[in-house]
Design goal:
N-terminal domain of TfIIb; alpha+beta; 4-stranded antiparallel β-sheet; 2 helices; 57 residues; globular
Amino acid sequence: MIDEKLLQILACPLCKADVILKNDKIICTKCRRKYPIKDDIPIMLIEEAQTNDEEKK
């Protein structure tokens, strides 16, 4: 589980907006990219993010 304090200081690496935790992803509140969490470590890399377009495929 991601620590609440860590979640408060994280920001989307693409648009620098705040992020929220939802299910097993960290989601940007602005661009809506979803960043995975692996072994309780957020993977905040743009190339690892899932976009809404990818979900519709």
